[in-house]
Amino acid sequence: MSDWLTPGLDHIWLPYTQMANAPMPLPVVATEGVRIRLADGRELIDGISSWWTACHGYKHPRIRAAVERQLATLPHVMFAGLVHEPAARLAQRLAALLPGDLDRVFFTESGSVAVEVALKMAIQYWRNTGRPEKQRIVYFRHAYHGDTFATMALCDPEEGMHALFAGSMPDQMMAELPSDEAMRRAFDLLLETHGERLAAVIIEPLVQGAGGMKMHDAQTLAYVAEACARHEVLLIADEIMTGFGRSGRMFACEEANVVPDIICLSKALTGGTLPLAATVARRHVFDAFLSDDPSAALMHGPTYMANALACAAANASLDVFENEPRLAQVAAIEVQLREELAPCRQLAGVAEVRVKGAIGAVELTGNIDVDALRRRFAELGVWVRPFGKVVYLMPPFIISAEDLATLTAAVCKVLTERAQQL
Predict the structure, then answer these.
(1) Are residues 150 and 170 in contact, defined by beta-carbon separation less than 8 angstroms?
(2) Catalytic positions, written as ranges
(3) CB of 210 within 8 A of CB of 387?
(4) How far apart are CA 380 and CA 338, in angstroms?
């Protein structure tokens, strides 16, 4: 380990980290199932699926075999003027899986870029249909949609991490989630007042992820969709985190019977194997780009768009969903999380415990030493990475009841220790 760790760290810039006093990252040498093996021989149960991606755990044999086969024939080729089978099959399968007529797939490499493409689609949709004044986007408090400049403008400016760039970002409009009658009236008034200038509303359906694991019900989502349709504003669903089973349905929008105009997918799309994202539009959105005028085309094209290895992994991941009981596993995880995280509600310094699908979140109060919590979790043999005021679990769907109990017990133990110090 000494031949790579220290020399390498002298040149690595870590994410979301103050490098002046950065804690030593844990050196990983292997992964298997739901476990991360460290260089010193310890194994950690992964409680967060490597930033919510590894829904099938690590090294699923079907996905591994698919990537190996693809590597032997066609690892990558540019997607401008060329096309290949893995991407064509994946686009067809996504269109069949997604609700309604979401059937035109634009591939990218990351969730942030998938959202950027959705914004470009929405704004250009109105331009192509003769309403170029509709350019602004509505997002919600506690939202997080990415770290690129256009997506930073859609993150909660107070609770998000992008305040430093406030003067450099586009000026968009934040709303409260319309979770009661008063908020519904306020949201409706916002769309009525500004509708002539609004291109789209963007929402994380049912669960707002990096903004604090805030949860809302299907009725709230359905109201947002209905209001958008009534005021002629496109609806973008950011299912980068919730997509592919995490909320309990294959896609969170299904719980509210909502078909957004555009949906963004990433994270679990390849089962946590390779970078891939997709922005999928309904037919009427796509049709607005069909014209004899070249300027009406969508001018976007990432270099590694529709990477063949990633598409092969994604197809294999969909095979796994078809052949293994993933949604049933998510339902079982939800029941266990509700039961085993419930004792945290009685602890000092705990504001709320929230569970939805394979997501369990404990929101804390007071001062929080996130680094100390992370170290303590690692000492207990689990990989749990709290952020902000939230300690959360989003385990791989294949996790056993015993391993999940180890995770929830670690959360209860660490937060009990914290409560005793308050």
Answers:
(1) yes
(2) 16, 144, 238, 267
(3) yes
(4) 21
**β-bridge pairing 207-208 and 214-215:** antiparallel
Does the pLDDT at position 56 exceed 80? Answer: yes
CB of 246 closer than 8 Å to CB of 268: yes
Q: How far apart are CA 135 and CA 199, in angstroms?
A: 5
Buried b / exposed e across 263-299, counting CB within 10 Å, b at 16+? bbbbbbbbbbbbbbbbbbbbeebbebeeeeeeeeebe
Summarised one tens digit per residue, pLDDT across range 167-177 is 788 889 999 99
Token digits of residue 78: 């540019």
CA 87 – CA 169 distance, rounded (Å): 33
User: In the beta sheet, which residues pair with residue 322?
Assistant: none
Please state, in angstroms and rounded to a whole number, the distance separating the CA atoms of residues 85 and 104: 16
Among residues 92, 142, 123, 59, the alpha carbon closest in space to that of 278 is found at: 92
CA–CA distances in Å: residue 83 to residues 287, 290, 396: 21, 20, 32
DSSP string, 150-218: HHHTTS-TTTSS-GGGGGGS---EEE----SHHHHHHHHHHHHHHGGGEEEEEE-SSEETTTT-EE--H
Return the closest-CA partner of residue 409 out of 387, 393, 390, 388: 393
Q: What is the dihedral of CA 5, 9, 13, 16, to 10 degrees?
A: 60
The residue with tokens 């997080």 is 144
Please provide the size of the chain in residues: 422
The answer to whether the beta carbons of residues 66 and 406 sit under 8 Å apart is no
The pLDDT tens digits of the residues spanning 316-364 come to 999 999 999 999 999 999 999 999 999 999 999 999 999 999 999 999 9
Taking alpha carbons only, the member of 46, 10, 12, 5 closest to residue 26 is 5
Do residues 401 and 335 make contact, with C-beta atoms less than 8 angstroms apart? no
Contact present, 357 and 7 (Cβ < 8 Å):
no
Assess whether pLDDT exceeds 70 at residue 159: no
Q: Mean pLDDT throughout 247-271?
A: 98
Report helix, strand or coil for 255: helix
Q: What is the largest CA-CA distance in the chain?
A: 69
Domains of the chain: 5-56+325-421 (3.90.1150.10), 61-323 (3.40.640.10)
309: left (phi over 0), alpha (psi -120 to 50) or beta: alpha
